[in-house]
Structures
1.
Amino acid sequence: MKTLSNVAIILSSMMMLLPVTTHSVVVESNESYIKSATFLSEKFEVGPGKIVVKTLLDIEFPKGHIGVKSFDVEVVDEDGKSVPLYETYLHHWFAVKYIENITMSHYIKQSHDLRNGIEFERNDGMCQGFLLPHYWGLGGESRGTSSNLPDPFAIELGNPTKVKDGFKEKWLFSIMVIDTRGAHDRKGCTECRCKLLNLPNYFYNVTMGINGQLLPRNYKGGLFCCQDNLQCKLRNGFNGPTRKLSLRYKIRWVDWNEHQVPLRFYILDSTDRVRSNGSIPIHDCQAEYTIPRNHDNDLPHVKKANIPMIKGGYLIYGTAHMHTGVINTTLYGQDGRVLCTSNPKYGTGKEAGNENGYLIGMSVCYPKPGYIKIKDGEILTLESIYENKFRTGAMGHFYIYLADQLLNKDSTI
């Protein structure tokens, strides 16, 4: 068993190619120049306590040279009904860009061999290797977190001059969902606590961590214990049906023209242990962390990282990807000024999108264009604050979109 193949955040699970059976639900455009389309991913099967970690390749995506304005995702059942988090918890979904060798497409589809013919194109974030490579992605907070980008800004995609000859731009989903129906400890199950999962006896003898070494025996929980097809321990006598679910995702975009201003997208990680090799920063992101038991005080748990930005820009959008228990997350400039604080919203009901006690949204910063500028080489401080309670698999990811200019230099406006 190779654990890394089951850790979606590292995306090594892409070595297993799934059938491509996505279906478009509806295509529409409003009265202005913004277009939108809603799609369904291929189905994946869940059952009580079951964990699903999948890579869904070649998802449907708008064609042509476009500027994406928003990308929103939720989990739905076979009838298109939204699934509440207390039934199936959306740990995360990531949308990742890759290019595929056109001459290899048939071979890849038939052989499920991704070692040749595919190149992945990550975001502008600084984490090492292929860690946190996605352009869009959240978790249980997806329904309540805005992804809209204000005019005239957008993420430029499909520029034919930027795609290598003989290659085609494509997209995939990397997902982790956890069915908590009947789980002995529903909250612990969503945190991927190892002792609450039916792990094989040889788990710690073969499972590799983020550093490529065997997981230590004191690893309490997180991504490496949530592997595809494993199951959270269930209450005695609980039985429930399996069902097939999908991701329903809506993308809004514009056809690219001289009036659009491109954005760069960064993912910053509060676990990033930055060191330097001379003048070159070396990033050592861990992607997740454990908040230890602490009975001495009620002060919140704080995780900080000081992250140098080689290339700065105007801040256009900011938000955080966090987990239940978060108090807030703040990004500071080198001089201590607050660039953006993302605050959580917790549910109070039973309906999907308002699940009681669950994190259902994170606030978004929309600074007035030109009001906040990050300088080249500026060292930013990311501070993630959680309740001081034992927690495994905590995350502190901050998403920022930066613009080099406020109007397109080629615009005639």
2.
Amino acid sequence: MALKSVFDSSVIRGEFDKAGINNRFIPLIWKYVIQNPDCNWEDIPSLPSSAYRLLRAKFKASTSVVHSVFESNDGVTTKLLIKLQNGAFVESVIMRYDSSLGKLNGKPRPGGPRSTLCVSSQVGCKMGCTFCATGTMGFKNNLSSGEIVEQLVHASRLSTIRNIVFMGMGEPLNNYSSLVDAIRVMTASPFQISPRKITVSTVGIIHAINKLHNDVPNLNLAVSLHAPVQDIRCQIMPAARAFPLEKLMNALREYQTKSQQKIFIEYIMLDGVNDEEQHAHQLGKLLEAFQVVVNLIPFNPIGSLSQFITSTNQKVTRFQKILRDIYDIRTTVRKEMGQDISGACGQLVVNLPDKRSISNAAPLTDIEDIRRQ
């Protein structure tokens, strides 16, 4: 039987409980492993003898390894190709930002450089979004909570991670139990990442949205809406047929009532498909009763798989202006990072791009730090 990841919280807590070992030792084990990636279990000081036996018998310090690291020419993006214990691969992306570049109430924000980690939750994806490279892989398998957390462990050795976005490979809410378990680990000792610095993105899995706030409160929820009407959503996102727009908006309304937090709306700009002025007005009317931030995302080409064209800057600007000026909806345009290493939004698919070297490029501001003046 394959050994489990020591970061698989529910498994290690269950095993410790069965063996009568106090769970307070678990964060100490995690901290030691993070700081000493090549350690043996016996190297960890001050554990009960039964804990050493249990760790040797059932757990590995890491069930995954970093196969390759790709540095983008933008100087602020690093993609990790991670090999799992079953031989499959997933990708994670480190994005470096500068918080001070944003605005707060029209004034410069406090803060400085930091890193956001884009995490994968599945190998492949079953949603089949026609603009996303990951969807071309089909669905392979869910990641365990330990495999999700290990992405953070690997990335933390390259950069100090302050924010986490579940926007990598897979639909996070289709791997719900592992997602919740992983987030609970990330927000606890020794990681202690604030829930408000974690964003979960979904195409709109209604039954899971209805549970999310109760299970892991204070997260940021991002919804991949991508169209203001159901017909267009179904055209570009086949899975949307199972999640009618009216029912999705009702679920989001209930989520916002419970959480009292803004919801991020992700909207990929596809030329001639969803980027016309009429679409902006439809989107504005759909969202005007919500507290949202709309993030307009330029379409990233996915090679010969592409059936779409990126919207022009003029169209994006006009779309943004309509949402802002007519509907008073906070709207940002995502600055794409890592296109040259296929690390930008919608480009994550297991392949081996040519390794790139870092060049000196200015850091960017993250969506969470952008404020409309």
3.
Amino acid sequence: MQSAYVGHDSGHYQVMTSRGYNKLAQILSGNCLTGISIAWWKWTHNAHHIACNSLDHDPDLQHIPVFAVSSHFFTSLTSSFYGRTLNFDPLARFLVSYQHWTYYPVMIVARVNLFVQTFLLLFSNRSVPDRGFNIMGILVFWTWFPLLVSCLPNWPERIMFVLASFAVTSIQHVQFTLNHFSANVYVGLPTGNDWFEKQTSGTIDISCPSMMDWFFGGLQFQLEHHLFPRLPRCHLRKVSPLVRELCKKHKLPYRSLSFWEANKSTIRTLRTAALQARDLTNPAPKNLLWEAFNTHG
């Protein structure tokens, strides 16, 4: 998790004094230590910052067929980022109908998807900056990590170790989604005059004491990070009161929830979309148990 935070910070060119040294930090902390290509991360993350929480432009919200944070996805939106239609087919309807139950289990194995996305990009026909260095970096990861796992005495322990490592990093995946899944969404690109407003409406901060800043890697100040992406994480807490006052002055949302409340808000958003998807697949009258559960929670 900490390596990924360093990869994120160096990806924003916050860590080192030069672009070259930052690139070195990116490859080491991202590719070599986590197995996730910094080239893939930049490709998606830049789009996320430009069009935060745009359903058709922000790849961080485009998780069909597994998750849908809005009923807009039920119309099979066309992803401007991926250049394809996000088909809301029967499989997607089924999976989304239970997404508030599958959210945490999926987060546990979400790292596998990042590995797959890394390989798909690096070995595609797309133009990839520093492709050679990125491939070398992931080769380093896929050398040391299997060797580490092979030191365990038997296959059951090896499988348990890998699953445990995925479960630990799932905390980070949960955090990434808490910042945006239950925030406001829209379709299209932000205009030149509403970019600031889109950032405030599309992000949620996680409130925590300063001693926990290391745990959240600075991303608990998500709005501050989106407004000042080049600002090192050690300064985010300092500018937070200024951003709060600015939002208050211009009557813009500034949402800061506890980790627990942010989880509840995310599950609530997923559940709302899940029940809407369930209505699409089963418009027949519900039984009494269904009505009791979904009316009264």
4.
Amino acid sequence: MGNSQSPSSHRDPRFASSSRAFSHTELEALKSLHASLAAQSQSKGPYVSPSVFKNYFGLHGPLGDRMFDLVTQQRKDQNLTFEDLVIAKGIYEKGTKDEIEEFIYQLLDVSGDGIVGRSDLECVLVAMFDNIFNMDNSEHGSSAHHETVNIFLNAAKFAKQDEGHAEESLSFEDFRTWCTLLPSVRKFLGSLLIPPNQGRPGSQVPRLLHLENIDPNMILLKKVYAWHIGGILPQHDLEEWKLLYHSSVNGLSFSTFLGNVSKDKRPTVLIIKDKEGYVYGGYASQPWERHGDFYGDLKSFLFQLYPTASIFRPTGANTNLQWCAVNFSSASIPNGIGFGGKVNHFGLFLLATLDQGHTFSCTTFGSPCLSKTNQIYPEVIECWGVVTKVADEEKHDGGKGTVLERFKEDRHMLNMVGLANASE
């Protein structure tokens, strides 16, 4: 094996630039970590072996192999140097958005053939769900994973043609679009060099609370759906979600729905399964309260859960975020609840009868029709309350934030959305 295939005795110029991204304390901590892992590796030099690396970072199977390959700069010598670790973490954790996403894109190529195909993404998603939901006892790629994996794969566009490959692949730009639709996936894949015992971002799943007399099989919100929806929520919104309304238990009563979901003044997650079998909904950051016009803030969003998983954030095109009209007699103010779009042409809308509604593509969230058809007939309706300590503290403080402060927060959210859209 030539010198180019072994750990270099000459300092890689990228090491100097990567080192500058870390404080002296951080570099010393990385040096101690590498020395500890190298000692466990029992190697003939200051090198970390693949098995020790993968065990420490909780990465196993093809995803772990691919990460070790990338961190060691694809030398194939099975030796991870201190320089390798600093360079990889400097790019993957401290780099620009483009550098980080390029690293993740390469990580998805678990077969190492230079393309990111559907089989690569399937392998990565199975590894992710094994890690997050402790499905280690299930057979790799088994039917238990199959349906869940497919709803996330369905959000990806495989349209790139690669010479010599029959399978269409995922281009870098289509990968970035996929990450936008699946922020939970992006968050997890961007945090793999953080040990799982240190609270790896992207691994948090809200604890789902419901009455014991409700058959769990009736509930739409699976853990993987909650993880998906929570991908763009802050940590304090991922602690507990409480079932406030279920149409099979509470009946199709709009007054019961509003009474159950609005009393705690918390954000809510509305989920609908329609008679076509599609599952989708919206995250309402503001309480459901009677208004004669649109209201809400830029924390609200729409989502799809089945047969495709996607999240649609506010684009900033307008502020038509939430709608809640009760007992209005004017045809121009339809009674019911909704998200986005415009009156009678919402992104998602349920009539006050709760037995029908509609969904159209809308510029508010950049979302498509969420179901098979524009007209929807709900089969099951659920609403979950987001339980957070922060909300309780603010409630006790009496909502000290001024209107101006809340407006500034919305402006900040809008700027974030604008920056995200500009980079996609």
